[in-house]
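Before a colleague's protein record goes any further, I have to sign it off. What it holds is a sequence and that sequence's fold in token form. My question to you is simply how this chain folds and whether the tokens agree. Thanks in advance; the entry in question is below:
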Amino acid sequence: MYEAGGTLDNPWLAMEVGADASARSATLRAAHEAFMVTGAVAEPVRDVVADSWRRSAALVGPDTIAPVHVTDGELEAYRVDHPLARVMPLLRDLLGTIAYDGAHLMGLSDADGLLLWVEGHPGVVRGAENTNVIAGARWDEVNVGTTATGIALAVDHAVQIFGAEHFTRSLHHFTCAAAPIHDPQTGATLGAVNVSGGPHLASPQSLALVQATARAAEAELASMLPGLPPTAPHLRVLGRDQAILDVGGTRHRLGRRHSEILVLLATHPEGLSAERLAWELYGDRSANPATLRAELSRLRQLLGPVIASRPYRLAEPVVADFVTVADLARSASVADALRAYAGPLLPGSGAPGIRQLRDDLETRVREAVLRSADRELLKRWATSPSGESDLEAWESVAAGLPVGSELYKRATARAATLRRIYGAASEDDAEIRRVPRQRTED
């Protein structure tokens, strides 16, 4: 359903129920062509799509075809050893029959967008091969621009993409929905499951279906971990303003203040006094102690004995995505850290303690990527929401490319744009400049 301003209530859905798919398709094609000429985004393009178009435009063209990176025996060996191979039978049970009967495709990718499996109706599978929708091809934003899989991996959220919302023109006849699948122990993104087909897939049901399938896959993976009790709390706060806490088999979506409290307590396993916790939450602003006690009381009512007191602390260890990323970056596992870094920590929070943690974590990841000098990691950072305005990163991307290549031209153009924005005098200016990013609530 549309709100008064013409915006979908759910920004991750492509269309409201009852919308005219043909009319929407024509409007989106016009908006897509206008963007390719002017770089400006017009209605009815959603913010999540517009952001992806801007990231994609820096690295790929509208006629790009997904590159095939792995084939034959190498592909078979890779996917057999991949953690998601263990849930592929479940995915076939949940989506395979639907894909076959509905003339759709079911795809499963790794965290880098490499398609591990593509299955469905044989006629549809053969037709999709013309656009390299095949196992072994890379379908992340860096290589093929805006797709449901690309966005799901880039922003760590389930999303639906309709027609000309795809960046490349060859995909304008597709509708896709994809959802990320996470490691139940670390919270890192393992890959994404997607379903794709014609315009009839542009319904809330297809998005809900892939979300439910991804959660079922995560539960299945958790059941296979003898070393991790099924009730071990798992906290996810990266790239979202409302924390998700899985505990005791129940998933809780927390409000901002409760999210902040859990993050601070997870950072201080030794516990925090009421005064210290209040300062981390409110800073110099005077806060009635009763306000904090009330927040903690409500949190205990919601979560049970997860929160202990005197001092305030977590009663048992919590697996937190931001702690995992920090540990990976610290241990020089840069590729894993970047995969697990789904975005800034509680990006909308203004709590002093959260702001510090958020800045420290982003700096740690960024510096690890820049030190690595790995071309693929640099591209992934530069085209992420965190790195899209990072001048040094874009200059590093350009420095590792053949002069005159299409990607080199795009990277140098982006760096030149950022230098103009920051008022840098020359390419030799050593100061690192980054403009504030727009934050999107989950």
The CA atoms of residues 319 and 406 lie 42 Å apart. Confidence is low (pLDDT under 50) at residues 1-7, 424-442.
